[in-house]
Design a protein that fits this description.
Two copies of one chain form a homodimer. Chain A has twelve helices and twelve strands. Chain A is of the alpha/beta class and 358 residues long. Chain A folds into two domains: 6-36 and 260-357, Aspartate Aminotransferase, domain 1 (Alpha-Beta Complex); 39-258, Aspartate Aminotransferase, domain 2 (3-Layer(aba) Sandwich), CATH 3.40.640.10. In chain A, the strands form two sheets. Chain A has a seven-stranded mixed beta sheet with strand order 2-8-7-6-5-3-4, sandwiched between helices. A five-stranded mixed beta sheet of chain A has the order 1-11-12-10-9, with helices on both faces. The model of chain A has no long low-confidence stretch (mean pLDDT 96). At the A-B interface, helix 2, helix 4, helix 8 and helix 9 of A face helix 2, helix 4, helix 8 and helix 9 of B.
Chain lengths: 358, 358
Amino acid sequence: MSLFLPHIERISGYVPGEQPQEAGWIKLNTNENPYPPSPRVAEAIQAAATSRLNLYPDPLATNFRRIAAEVYGVDPDQILPTNGSDEVLTIITRSFTGTGDLMAYPYPSYILYETLADLQNVSHQRLILDEQWNWSKERVGPVVHRAKAVFVPNPNSPSGNCWTTSQIAELVPPEGVLVLDGAYADFADEPQTAEILNADFGDRVVMTRTFSKSYSLAGIRFGFAIARHDMIAGLRKVKDSYNCDSISLAAATAAIADQAWMRANVARIRETRAWLTDQLIQLGFTPTPSQANFVWTTHPSGKHHEIYLALKARKILVRYMRFPGVDWAADRLLDGLRITIGTREEVAACVEALKQIV
Amino acid sequence: MSLFLPHIERISGYVPGEQPQEAGWIKLNTNENPYPPSPRVAEAIQAAATSRLNLYPDPLATNFRRIAAEVYGVDPDQILPTNGSDEVLTIITRSFTGTGDLMAYPYPSYILYETLADLQNVSHQRLILDEQWNWSKERVGPVVHRAKAVFVPNPNSPSGNCWTTSQIAELVPPEGVLVLDGAYADFADEPQTAEILNADFGDRVVMTRTFSKSYSLAGIRFGFAIARHDMIAGLRKVKDSYNCDSISLAAATAAIADQAWMRANVARIRETRAWLTDQLIQLGFTPTPSQANFVWTTHPSGKHHEIYLALKARKILVRYMRFPGVDWAADRLLDGLRITIGTREEVAACVEALKQIV
């Protein structure tokens, strides 16, 4: 007899993208930023490394929240810093969804949401997207109506498309929360702003942000939620007291204070994204126009797994993804490649390899 | 109507010890180590700060687990690193206890266990300790028998006493897990070793360790679990993929590799602990002999809150604690002071202040 709860025993756990720890790979598989973080980050870390690490961090992350609040035009008490935005997603499931409740999310989208639902032992249902990566309001309406939480990445992954606020409004559950996962927001033409919290459904919205993508800090595990005061006060009860460490706090505070650095990297990535999209088209691929730091593409041959393996043999890692149950794809299975935007040189090497492969 | 789950709405959240962020305090309230971490830690952090922070950390914490396994004489797959040992405690509640299940823990002990049970919406029951900080096997037996998880800090807080393995064996639930919280283990005469995992009940034991106390690294939020292979494999499914950041991993790996540094600090703290205990007795207090990095004491006057406030007025923070429902204390309320062992100078300043106050 297992001691584990039955729903924990049942799950296999989330499998993150491959993370080779040795050098020599061109890593275009987990949407990391190819550029280093602001030089102020290393300075802040070095200062933190030699001062009071023997003491607990500020459990309220006062300095970080003050600066983040300025950047987003909200109050510091509308910000909740977490150990990566993964942690805030976990905190949300634990706050709003219990056994018997329903969680929903667009599909194909971020696979982790399903794992989070399984871990919390809640039902989950997919809001199936069509070939244009949109939902039909009529089709998803009944699910949204019953959901206690709807998770929406905007821009979406793996597609990279961005939905408008009026589209998003269709996914707000009348008796639940909408989680707007903005992991890739900074790469969009018009990132979702905190303005949405002023909508009449704004008391039911939690926006999340991460430092793993636009701020080049996947290594420090830092994210945060933005929501109305009551929402943040409730979520704060569910987090561990000292969920963010002193060094990550110092690093994230330095990074968010240097908006110019982040924006310059985002601009370069957007340029390379346009170039890659164009190259893929020339090579006969069918890429989806992206608002994120990756491009989703299929190829008419359908040989996506073979292409992934051929790239891997050349030490180029991209993400091969398969989504069963998509009714507009062949055999109801959609698969394809998600290619992270690296440096221009890395992406050019990938394109060169693809020229040899396809 | 609140969107939050009823059990979340109900709780008020764990209140950690006061953490003044400005200088000038003698901080003897949250069991931090007064000495800096190994110098190798700052070196490791500085190296990590300037290399690949844009990439995700190793989700398996391979280097750390290798060294920790050597230190504890176990296999690397028997180690699960977490974001502070708080995170492993949360992971355990989510893995083993569901609605309707029972969690238990000695009382008085670490208050957080109750908060963790409330967050998971499980029942909890106290294993009431007697005046010698021991339990009666007859009294606690029926509760242990029904529990899905029993949390035991060893050494205990606030008392600082340590239980033997044969005592601990009385608390292993027949159909649940025993969590041996070893936050203070390194300060004991004979720290609990991983030997207990070889007992016939060893498949139902999870040991936890933290870097916040003996390793002087409360600021980096790092802890880990030690258990048998199956147990660790199950717990790993419940953690966030990237729960430990690159810098904390580098810092913890450097710290655990420098056992001599940790041991030297522990020796100094044990010396000061003996001195403080002696001084408290001379001042008319009734301290409990401690195996941890703090001393629990009462005073015959019972004016513990007044003494706490008088120390605070002198910028000396100790922890005033009150435990209702203790049947051997006056009015069933036990209160007292928990004084962290700081440097000899800090503790001497506290003693001087107490001389003026009592």
